Amino acid sequence: MNEINAHHCNLNIWAHLPDEVWDRVADIYESMPGWIGDIDGIPHWFGQEEDDVFIQASVEPSGLSFYAQMNQSDWDSWRDRFKSEATRVLGFEVGEPEDGFE
Question: Exposed (0-12), middle (13-18) or buried (19+): which is 101, by Cβ within 10 Å?
Answer without folding.
Answer: middle
